[in-house]
Amino acid sequence: SGGMAGRFGNDGCIGLRRSVVMRRYFSLGLILIFCAVSHAQEVDWPAYGGSDGGGHYSPATQINRENVKRLQQAWVHRSGDFKGGVQSLTEVVSEELQSSRPTSFIGTPIVTQGKMFYCTPYNRVFALNPATGEELWVFDPEVDMTQENLTNCRGVSSWGAVTPQGLVCEHRIVLATLDARLIVMDGQTGLPCEAFGDGGEVDLTQGLTAHIGSEYGVTSAPAIIGDLIVTGAYVTDSIRQDIPSGVVRAYDIRSGEFVWGWNPVHPDLPQRDAQGKFVAATTNVWSTISVDRERNLVIVPTGNSSPDYYGGDREGHQDYYSSSVVALDGTTGEVVWSYQTVHHDIWDFDVPAQPTLTDVTIDGQTRAAVVQVTKMGLTFVLDLETGEPLHPVEERPVPQTGQVPGEYLSPTQPFPLKPKPLHPLGITPDDAWGFTFWDKQKCRALLSQATTGPIYTPLTTKGTVMYPSNLGGNNWGAPAVDPERQIMITNTKRTPIQVKLVPQAECAGGEAFPQKGSPYCAEMKPLISPWGAPCTKPPWATLDAVDLSSGEILWSVPLGTLKHLAPWPVTLFVKGGLEAGGPTVTASGLVFIAATSDGYFRAFDVDDGAVLWAHELPATGNAVPVTYMHEGRQYVAVAAGGHFTSPLPSNDFLIVFALP
Q1: CA gap 176, 219 in Å, rounded
Q2: Cα Rg for the chain, rounded, in angstroms?
Q3: 307-349 residue pLDDT tens
Q4: Cβ neighbours of 367 (radius 10 Å)
């Protein structure tokens, strides 16, 4: 059937059924079996989030609850693009280690047009045979990594001509690079599409204010809507106040021509300065953008304004779209609606995850929705057409005292009544935890010496313990949504971080968060006991299931173990270690996620969170996994290459599993 499907294609079933039945070569039953099999041959993963609107969902069902325990390694691909060494949460905030920092391999492959495509930490792109891992081509943009602080490439994007005519570049792969280039290559050969921009690429630094290379680049896969590429960028917004603009821009995918740009300034103010440059220091869109083709909408998750941890000098235009979900017109880039998740965000609670588009039934009425998880562990369910909350949201008073001189605070913040929070909303010394009475008291002392309180307690020169922290709650890898069950699956971090503001005169230089131009630099460190454990009660990571219709938490289970982090027998009774990554869910009721510091790749039951399968990886798998059907066989793939939260060395494994 594989060969017949290849010749006839799925559309050939109708004609084949007629001709063969007429000639009586086969019984009708056999023909129906053939057609069913041929339609099941290919289930792609055509975009980073599985679809244009995210969700990390696959309708593939060959791998199910009963047989998932039989999964085995099918093939492995290694790019060679990695720098060894072990990273840590403490070291990631040290500017001195940026040049020697090991790589983070967090790329999620896409599978489309009979090929798999993925990018490495050095922005090289590989095209592989999805069944064998055989290299078909490789493209090297030759990024000078000595000029880059990050080694992140979450994915590439795909575009195909509506009416293929057998021409070059009818299928295009889109790469946005760490050195701020937009590159389009032929999906068949990997050669640049010469008609796009200048020899296949567009310089994204055009139109920006002066900056050095490491201050502006792209780490997430661009969005595709019609014949447009839409991209934001990662901007080092804690370096200085006048960092380059966070503009979102659209380019014609055929020619590379600039079509529109949206700079997140107040709608009454100009988007460009007197020199024609996009106004600097606006909030950026570093995470993954969603599109809704039916409504011609581009849905962007925005960061918080520069600098991250002090907002007293921000002009009104900088905060207007900060830490928001914004819907743009796909043709013009004009704002259709916006919803702010944090007012005057001085905690770096930017919107970190791709807005997930799905239908949600609430009180018997089904609406198209945007599901947005946040670093606070709060989930907003918004109407896709208007941006209005579909579950009630309450503006509640938040702390108004203790801020540093010059800072101001929003009197209220939005709190969704549903879904329920996935993270405790604040911390006090009474929340101190330890393995023993001794280390618990040490943690209690640390908390007593710092500023603590409910969420949105202002940052201080004494040091404010953020819990949830600016790492999450939820982050860029979440969530997965099962559209049939209307269940959201998300991974939640529960580790406290202390952020301290230091007057600029006392800043020694070399800080990771210098915030130049503001009165304060910022220091950040995890709140840990003398034994290296977080000072809060475990689990320090959970996998959570939420009913999007009712808003109820269906289950919450510890995610991962303390293997590689703590000695035996601690690993036996403390569950839920550090994590970074995200889940994928299938129609057969499986949730796949690696993410954990113990280096395991697991399959959970979507109904109750039970672990059904686990496989130890050679490095931590901190990417979102994918699953796809190719020539009648379902595969599950994950990048295993490490992350700054990982206790294992960085590496370059792309590992693919299947049933025997």
Answers
A1: 7
A2: 24
A3: 999 999 887 678 999 999 999 999 999 999 999 999 999 999 9
A4: 16
DSSP state of 146: G
The CA distance from 522 to 518, in Å, is 10
Sign of the C-alpha dihedral, residues 334, 337, 341, 342?
A: positive
Question: What one-letter code names the amino acid at 438?
Answer: W
Q: Which residues belong to the active site?
A: 348
> Strands (DSSP E) along 527-565, which ranges?
541-547, 553-558
CA-to-CA distance for 124 and 462, rounded, in angstroms?
Answer: 44
Closest-CA residue to 283 (of 309, 248, 331, 249): 248
What's the rounded Cα separation, in Å, for the pair 348 and 51?
Answer: 28
Beta strands 583-586; 57-58: pairing state: parallel
What predicted TM-score, i.e. pTM, was given to this entire model? 0.92
Phi, psi of 449 (to 5 degrees): -80, -15
Region label for 486, one of left (φ > 0), alpha (ψ between -120 and 50) or beta (otherwise) = left
Is the alpha carbon torsion for 330, 334, 338, 343 positive or negative? positive
Sheet holding 480-482, edge to edge: 480-482, 487-493, 541-547, 553-558
| Long-range Cβ pairs for the range 195-200 (8 Å, 24+) | 195/169, 195/254, 195/255, 195/256, 196/169, 196/172, 196/253, 196/254, 196/255, 196/256, 197/251, 197/255, 197/256, 198/256
Residue type, 101: R
